[in-house]
Amino acid sequence: MRVNALYRDDFYLSTCEAVVTAIHDDGGIELNQTCFYATSGGQPGDTGQLERADGTKIILGQTKHGAGKDVIIHVPLENEPRPEVGETLVLHVDWPRRYRLMRMHTACHLLSVICSHPITGAAVGEEESRVDFDMSETIDKDEVTAKLMELVGQNHPVYLQWITDDELAANPDIVKSKNVRPPMGLGRVSLVCIGENSSIDSQPCGGTHVSETQEVGQIHIAKIEKKGKENRRFRIRFGTPGQEA
């Protein structure tokens, strides 16, 4: 059953009601709608809890996609209670964790503005994220940090625009990643835009992001690693060098 993924239109929605539509043999739970982000594009899926009518909680260890992007499976930790199909639950995202991931994912977009090379890989984390670029030249990490914090401090708006799958297919150059394609097959693709009229950046992405760059907070490039002749890995962390938050 195709799920209504509420987070696609509201990154700040951390709770909602939903009805159980299926239970998998391994305990995975499908719902008619969800505010839980499912692992995709280098960003981990949400954790949190599902609250039953009697107040008991079902603690989730991960959220993932099923056979397609239109299927989202909520996976409880071992030995958690199992709900019934048709049961109404109240969903509660682990908000502090999600918000850190939103800040980090936005920071990765800002880095792609400063380092305008094709992206060969990326992983968003709560404490550290990495972005790999197809590049051979050396670059000073402190200089990149300064440019990142300049964009953060300018407090540019971050927002979504929607285009159709066909529009994306007709404009493949807007995709920065060399290896990962934007989520397609749902009829529409979200463009994450930074700056008024996308003046800073615009790229397809299905992840979650903050609404203005200032929310990213203090970040820095902790390390730049050489991963091959033409590949550089940038590691982003919160806080200032030596004072990670």
From TrEMBL:
This protein's cofactor list reads: Zn(2+)
Q: Name one GO cellular component term.
A: cytoplasm
| Limits of the Alanyl-transfer RNA synthetases family profile domain | 1-245
Task: Please name the InterPro entries in this protein's record.
Answer: Ala-tRNA-synth_IIc_core (IPR018165), Ala-tRNA-synth_IIc_N (IPR018164), Alanyl-tRNA_Editing_Enzymes (IPR051335), Thr/Ala-tRNA-synth_IIc_edit (IPR018163), Transl_B-barrel_sf (IPR009000), tRNA_SAD (IPR012947)
Q: What Gene3D superfamilies does the annotation carry? A: 2.40.30.130, Threonyl-trna Synthetase, Chain A, domain 2 (3.30.980.10)
Domain of life of the organism encoding this protein = Bacteria
Question: Where would you find this protein in the cell?
Answer: Cytoplasm
> Which GO annotations describe the biological process of this protein?
alanyl-tRNA aminoacylation
GO terms (molecular function) for this protein are: alanine-tRNA ligase activity; aminoacyl-tRNA deacylase activity; ATP binding; metal ion binding; nucleic acid binding
**Which Pfam family is an annotated match for this chain, by its short name?**
tRNA-synt_2c
Which keywords annotate this record? Hydrolase, Metal-binding, Zinc
Protein name, per record: Alanine--tRNA ligase
Which organism is this entry from?
Rhizobium aethiopicum
Q: Which taxonomic lineage does the organism of this UniProt entry have?
A: Bacteria, Pseudomonadati, Pseudomonadota, Alphaproteobacteria, Hyphomicrobiales
